[in-house]
Design brief:
The chain has 14 helices and no strands. By secondary structure, the chain is mostly helical. Helix 3 crosses helix 4, helix 9 packs antiparallel against helix 13 and helix 9 runs antiparallel to helix 14. The longest helix has about 40 residues. It starts with a helix and ends in an 11-residue tail after the last helix.
């Protein structure tokens, strides 16, 4: 005898079995497993950042060697096409880089050592040239006295120079880091072709090998283009700064322009150091305070245009990067690894974008335009 569904439901009810809820339960927007996965990813990111921050003395020169070596690999390929062995080409390239680093250090140290000897004279001249502010300071003191505030400052005092030594330690890596960087650089450039082959052949699937080859080729091309682009931009900044210093009758305008171009390879920190140097040179060398501030203020305009419009726009358009992403990358890596981290911020961002485009391509439908 066939039992109807209604009779089966009634029989189950009579036996005390609860009736199933007929309402359909919707799954939660975020499942518990997804929350756990997000938490684990967050902990992993925090662990990686903490490790990179604490082990800066090791990871910074190694990563610097990898990035700079990738930028210089086209030069090694060029020399190799002229029958120069890869190892010898790597030695030549690294020797040239070492000479360039030595020139930069000399370019930075000579003016600083020369003008640091004038610090006592700078204090005297600065006090003499700031007499123009005596009347505003007196008015401010009268206002403070009228309001009953006895903490009015009694006059201008030169700031202490206790920050010089920590700043120098922050800007200059140790000899061990330099040695690790150059060793990594020369070995990386010499063995980059073998490393490429190992990375590509490490995948068994043909599509994975082809994708890895495309990623490596694109990283090498874009990092080389980035180095060339930044070098041209900094050369333009140096020429503009040299012209401004020449118009303002600053001493050694060509040297100051070259110094500005060199320091501009370190975003944020480099322009600040250049501005300070221009102020010191102007105050010591020029007769009036207004004339001394012409070149530094003009350099501020040049650095503002370059840092906020020219460089983010050119580098951003090359890989469709957002200017805000470039700026935040510079801020993060400067906090993480200092000036060298700031230099590495844009190359690392370029590598991240290339990996994202190849490993996680956008195949899903896009949102409609506004």
């Amino acid at each position: 005898m066939r039992v109807l569904p209604s009779e089966r439901l009634l029989s189950n009810t009579s036996e005390g079995t609860p009736i199933a809820d007929t309402a359909v339960e919707l799954p939660p927007v975020i499942r518990r497993t997804e929350v756990v996965a997000l938490a684990l990813v967050g902990l992993l990111i925090i662990s990686i950042v903490a490790t990179l921050y604490e082990a800066k003395a090791f990871f910074l020169p190694v990563v610097m060697g990898f990035v700079v070596g990738t930028m210089l690999s086209p030069a090694a390929n060029f020399l190799e096409r002229y029958k120069i062995p890869r190892a010898f080409a790597a030695v030549l390239i690294v020797t040239a880089v070492a000479a360039l680093v030595g020139f930069i250090i000399a370019l930075l140290s000579v003016p600083l050592m020369e003008w640091s000897a004038h610090l006592p004279e700078l204090g005297t001249r600065l006090k003499d040239k700031l007499h123009v502010f005596d009347r505003p300071i007196a008015l401010w003191q009268e206002l403070q006295g009228t309001l009953g505030n006895n903490n009015a400052f009694g006059g201008f005092q030169m700031p202490s120079f206790d920050w010089v030594q920590p700043t120098i330690q922050f800007l200059t890596p140790t000899f061990t880091e330099f040695l690790l960087f150059f060793a990594t650089l020369i070995l990386f450039v010499a063995s980059w072709r073998d490393l490429r082959r190992t990375l590509i052949m490490g995948f068994g699937d043909h599509d994975a090998r082809l994708r890895t080859l495309r990623i490596l080729n694109e990283i090498e091309v874009h990092l080389g283009n980035y180095l060339l682009t930044v070098s041209l931009i900094n050369a333009g900044v140096g020429i503009a700064t040299g012209l401004v210093c020449w118009i303002a009758q600053m001493p050694r305008p060509a040297g100051l322009g070259a110094l500005a171009a060199t320091l501009n390879f370190i975003p944020i920190i480099g322009p600040i150091a250049t501005f300070v140097i221009l102020c010191v040179v102007g105050i010591v060398a020029l007769p009036g305070l207004g004339a001394a501030l012409v070149a530094p203020l003009a350099f501020c305009g040049i650095a503002f245009l370059e840092g906020h419009f020219i460089t983010p726009t050119i580098i951003g358009r090359r890989l469709a990067l957002n200017a805000l992403a470039v700026f935040l990358g510079i801020a993060f890596w400067t906090w993480m690894w200092g000036p060298m981290g700031a230099f590495l911020s844009s190359p690392l961002l370029i590598v991240a974008v290339i990996l994202k485009e190849h490993l996680w391509p956008v195949n899903s439908p896009q949102l409609p335009p506004d």
